[in-house]
Structure formats: C-alpha cells, structure tokens
Amino acid sequence: MAEKSYKDLEAEVWETGRCARCGACIAVCPADALSFPENAHGHPVSSSYCKMECDDVPCGACYLACPRVADGADPAKPLGDYISAVSARATFPVPGKQSGGAVTAVLVHALEAGLVDAVVTVSEDRWTRKPQSVVITDREALVAQAGSRYNWWVPLLAALKEAVVVRKYRRVAVVAVPCAAEAVARIRTSGFDLHGPYARAIRLLVGLFCTESFDYTALMEGKIRGDLGIEPWEVERLDVKGYLEVTRLGGGTETVPLADLEGCIPEGCRHCTDFAAVHADISAGAVGSPKGYSTLLVRTDAGRGFVAGAVAAGLLVVDGEADLAKVEALAKRKVARSRQE
To answer: Which residues contact 72 (CB under 8 A, 6 or more apart)?
Structure first.
C-alpha cells in the first residue's frame, strides 16, 4: 500500500509539468475517478472522489504506478541491461511498418500461438491520424495498425483496464514508449494487491526507442497541415531521425528541423531520460540496423522466448548483431537534454 494518494500525484507530478500522460493512473484507479478528457492540459483530471482521501480506504494505486515519481533511467547505463542486440525483420508484408516490422512479427506469432490473447497498443484514425489507445486481438488489425503512430503523445495504458478488467484477458502484451513501459514495470513489480490483476496478465512488454513524442494538435494541425500544407490523410509515415521526416502517400517527403518543433513537444516529455525503454522485455527501433530491419534489444528470458518463437514459426528473421553505437549516442543525448531542461 502506498502512503500517498492522487493528491500527492497532483502536487508532485501534475502541477509540476512532469506528467508522462501514460495513462497508468487511469488504468489502476479502482474507483474510476481519473480520466483524460479531450480538453485536459497535460495531465489527467480527478472526479475528486478518492477512496483513500474520502473514505480512508488504503489505496495509492495511482501513485505507485506513476513513472514520474521514480528516478528514471540510470545515466551510467543508458541502454540498460540486455541479453542480446540483433537486427531482425518480418518475413511477411507489413505495409505501414516503421522499419523492419519485427515487433509486428513477434506480436502476430504471440497471438496466433496463443501466448497472448490481446495486445494493448496505439491505433489511429486513417483520415485524421488522431491516436487512441486500443485493445487488438487479431492479426489483420495488428498488421494494419503497424507504423509511426507512437510519435503521438497518448494515454496508452488507459486501455489496460479495458483489456484486463472489462474484457477479462489474462494474457496481454503491451507495446509502449519508454515512459509507459516504466509504468508497466512498476505495476508488475510493486507487489500491491490492486496492481495484481494487471501484473499477472501482462506477459510481454515491448518498449520502443523514443527521442520525444508530439502533441497531436500542435504538430498535425499546426505544423503539418498549417505550415507544410499536408492534410492528415495524406501522411503515410512520420520518422524522427535528427529531424522530422513526413512521408506522403504515394511518395515524396518533407523535413522539419527538430528545433522548429519545440512547441509541439509536451512539457512532461522533457523530463524523460529513457530513450531505449530499459524496463521492457524487448526494446525495439530502427536505429542501429540497416534499412528494412529493426533493432531488437532482448532484455529478459520472456522476451527471448517470444523472439525465438517468432523465428521458429518463420515469421521473423534475425540477421546478425545490431550496431549499438548510434543507439547509445541517442540515449546519452536524451539524458543530457533532460538535465538541461
């Protein structure tokens, strides 16, 4: 049991601009008292009913799950601990893939082999590209949603409650950017009773390399539509690689220097020190591998088993070790930038 309630979360995290907007507190609140309405400014809102504050019932589930009450990644180990670092790709078409489609291959195998029943991930509307957290249970939907939607800041873990509590799935995979991955790790290891159903259900945590996320309205409406004149439905892919590259459907690209996107980066994102999702079972990204491949940092025995299963099923090809020099450079740069904020 935590000694702190949502009031402490509000004072320490929400009001200081540190909120990761990961949605973990929304998922684990037993009173459904926290939410993220459309007009929320950078953090959840409370109905003001809290079992701990109002009824003196032991809780603190939200505080224990929050990644921003922790110290973040260890600057001395920017890549974290891992078993292996490989370049891999899917063996089947993944039309919207960001790099090699390796994460999609691992998840497709997990679903088809019955290792997981559902994947908590991010979906986006095909016309507006607006993101939302979803629960996916079939291969077709998973492949269709592969791509660059993780560039958007979205309360991903809010969908955990839908998966575990509402739909009663007991074998769940989560695909998350580093802040949300850290929240999942806290839930899995807290030992707190109210976290138990989630901790037991989450069988695989895939973390994605992340330099920063972007506010949808500021980037899509302000920069991409407003400055570049590109409609949301015309955007095929967004890539962040020292600059923002916007790829149009049918070909053609536009680039935007990251310095021009400072106003699109949420304040809470600036406090993150984790590039490589060090708390995941498997971390993944395009950096460190040739074009058409994904870099996979396999961190746990569970992660190794999921990768091996996808390879054995012929859905994933592993082709040598990844070059981690660029990955480490970006990880160190993120730590340095956070210290300057």
So the answer is: 182, 271, 272, 273, 274, 338
- We find that the CATH architecture of domain 6-69 is 2-Layer Sandwich (3.30)
Query: In percent, how much of the chain has pLDDT > 70?
Result: 95
CATH number for domain 216-264, candidates 3.30.70, 2.40.50, 3.10.450, 3.40.50:
3.10.450
Closest CA to 204 of 132, 113, 124, 118: 118
How far is residue 4's CA from residue 64's CA, in Å, rounded to a whole number? 8
- Tokens 């921003």 appear where? 68
3-state SS, residue 271:
helix
Q: What would the DSSP string read from start to end of 138-170?
A: SHHHHHHT-SSGGGB---TTHHHHIIIIIS--S
What are the two backbone dihedrals, phi and then psi, of residue 62, each rounded to the nearest 5 degrees?
-65, -45
Condensed to tens digits (0 to 9), the pLDDT of residues 233-245 reads 998 888 777 788 8
Residue 1 pLDDT more than 60?
Answer: no
Give the pLDDT of residue 188. Answer: 97
298 - beta bridge partners? 84, 282
Confidence of residue 149 (pLDDT cuts 50, 70, 90): low
**Burial (CB count within 10 angstroms: exposed 0-12, middle 13-18, buried 19+), residue 12:** middle
At position 219, the amino acid (one-letter code) is L
pLDDT tens string 65-99:
999 997 766 777 899 999 999 999 999 988 777 78
Rounded Cα–Cα distance for residues 216 and 207 (Å): 21
Whether the domain at 6-69 and the domain at 216-264 fall into the same CATH topology: no
